[in-house]
Each structure stands twice: as C-alpha cells, then as structure tokens.
Specification:
Length: 123
C-alpha cells in the first residue's frame, strides 16, 4: 500500500527558510501528480503547490508564489517543498499528497495523504 511520510518541519523565525521532504513508498511514484497542502488550527485545508510527473508544470497558490518551490526526484521517490521568506501566516501542518490524475489545487482529487509535519513561524 502507498505510504507518504513528511519531514523537515520545525519552529523558525520569520524570514528564514525550511525545506520539507515527502518520501513515498511503492513502485509507482513517477506516475503520480504530487501536491502540498496545509492546515492551520480552526481553518480548512489549503492548497499550497503541485507538480506533474516529470517535474515540470508546477502550480502554486498566490499566497506562496515567489517564495515556495516544489520539486521532485523520481529516482528517490521524494517530493520537496522549499519554503523561503517564511511568514507567521505560513504556520500550519503541511501535508503531502499523491494523485493519479487530480486537478492540482483540488484536495478531493488526490488519492494518498501523509500524516503531516508541523511548521511554526514566529514573528
């Protein structure tokens, strides 16, 4: 069964950077569209970024465009989220997701989800 495990979160000061990683089990990683979502306490899950199978055709939420970069390494079954210039409003649990053919920003279109990793940005 496909499993996703996020790592790289932590407590950081505003303006610094973090890189999140998501390791995906199985033999079919390269067939998935991959996405990152986040959820703050009391709020709905929010789309952050998505990437197609080859590593091209990236897509970002307006709130993170220019600051965050999604990438993937199909040889390592891993997707990354480079997060620069972090702001307090970026504080959330970040989730990695995999889908066969989702619309990039639509959480309902993804088939597998990780447990999440906490990112906390202090002012």
């Amino acid at each position: 069964q496909v499993q996703l495990v996020e790592s790289g979160g932590g407590l950081v000061q505003a303006g610094v950077s973090l890189r999140l990683s998501c390791a995906v089990s199985g033999r079919t990683f390269a067939t998935y569209v991959m996405g990152w979502f986040r959820q703050a306490p009391g709020k709905e899950r929010e789309f952050v970024a998505a990437i197609r199978r080859s590593g091209g055709s990236t897509y970002y939420a307006d709130s993170v465009k220019g600051r965050f970069t999604i990438s993937r390494d199909n040889a390592k079954n891993t997707v990354y989220l480079q997060m620069n210039s972090l702001k307090p409003e970026d504080t959330a649990v970040y989730y990695c997701a995999a889908g066969f053919a989702p619309r990039g920003s639509d959480a309902n279109g993804y088939d597998y989800w990780g447990q999440g990793t906490q990112v906390t940005v202090s002012s």
